[in-house]
Design a protein that fits this description.
The chain is an alpha/beta fold and about 270 residues long. The structure holds nicotinamide-adenine-dinucleotide and beta-D-glucopyranuronic acid. Beta-D-glucopyranuronic acid binds next to loops.
């Protein structure tokens, strides 16, 4: 029997949402696909909810009858304040209010490395290091990590906040040789987050079993996530096509990589 009756997946049309749509299928009787546009290829175990996360009423309504929420919708890069505010901050508040009003037991949230992007790689931080965002995007991830903490402490809604590093079809640059999370491992991580018996409020890094380890995920071992992939098969090709970067550059020094070199998104020309 499936573990959940109905899971709401926000961001269902996105890069990771598209992968999770297939990956979550065994875990729930129904997957409700949350997106801004309608799908025309619904499988028999799928239904849809078309809404913008900035719309409080519609977002709360989309959570009705869902016993779990996998929240992967929102701006996935540094963006102007208004976008961050509407999609990530207000949108996530609406999701958590939906969980509270409609009785979802657990939320799995796509946080990001950019919540702690200004920590130096050599610090080898654990999941309980102080937050250190590298962007407004990172600040929005800090907000939701904190919001979800409140909803656990006050309302008993469990959350797993996944600080995903770089989840792409394959590592695109040298940083991704240590920050890579394969799609299959991303699905394993979300599955572990949904099926671990007790998670309370958990923060976990989201990485594959890459050879170079930059952080310590021991504080999330109770999830039982075991990565099976690694960036190593891609190393030779990545190193051959990308020059050795300056080791003192902010993009190399900090976990957040190139986000640490971005300008401010609300300046007229943020990235000259
Ligand atoms: N892929 C990665 O490497 C990575 C790393 C860290 C965190 N994340 C997080 O994982 C989540 C998914 O990332 P992704 O790589 O699939 O990005 P993506 O941009 O492909 O997916 C995000 C989805 O959210 C939707 N969305 C954006 N604003 C919305 C709004 N206002 N209302 C409703 N839907 C909205 C988009 O249409 C899109 O389908 C994001 O929260 C992102 O911050 C991704
Ligand atoms: O740092 C990274 O590699 C990734 O961080 C994530 O938060 C972003 O959604 C993704 O677009 C970045 O490429």
């Amino acid at each position: 029997m499936a573990r959940y009756e109905r899971i709401l997946l926000t961001g269902a049309a996105g890069r990771l949402g598209t992968e999770l749509r297939k990956g979550l299928a065994p875990l729930a009787g129904k997957i409700r696909l949350g997106a801004r546009n309608a799908f025309d290829d619904l499988a028999s175990n799928e239904e849809q909810a078309v809404f913008d996360l900035a719309d409080m009423e519609a977002t709360i309504e989309a959570t009705r009858d869902c016993d779990a929420i996998v929240h992967f919708g929102g701006a996935s890069l540094e963006s102007p304040w208004q976008t961050i505010l509407d999609a990530n901050i207000r949108g996530s508040y609406h999701v958590y209010e939906g969980a509270r009003k409609h009785g979802a037991r657990r939320v799995v949230y796509a946080s990001s490395v950019h919540a702690i992007g200004y920590h130096e790689i050599e610090a080898h931080i654990g999941v309980d290091a102080p937050v250190r965002p590298d962007s407004l995007y990172g600040v929005s991830k800090n907000f939701v990590e904190s919001l979800s903490r409140l909803y656990w402490d006050k309302f008993g809604i469990e959350s797993v906040c996944l600080r995903i590093f770089s989840s792409f079809p394959e590592p695109a640059d040298r940083r991704m040789l240590w920050s890579y999370l394969s799609f299959a491992d991303c699905i394993r991580l979300v599955e572990a987050s949904l099926t671990a018996p007790r998670v309370g409020h958990t923060i976990s890094f989201g990485l594959s079993d890459n050879k170079v380890k930059t952080v310590d995920n021991g504080g999330a071992s109770h999830l039982g996530y075991i990565p099976r992939d690694s960036s190593e098969p891609f190393r030779a090709a990545v190193e051959a096509r990308t020059p050795l970067p300056d080791p003192k550059a902010a993009a190399v020094k900090y976990l957040g990589g190139w986000f640490c070199e971005l300008g401010h998104p609300d300046d007229e020309k943020p990235n000259p």
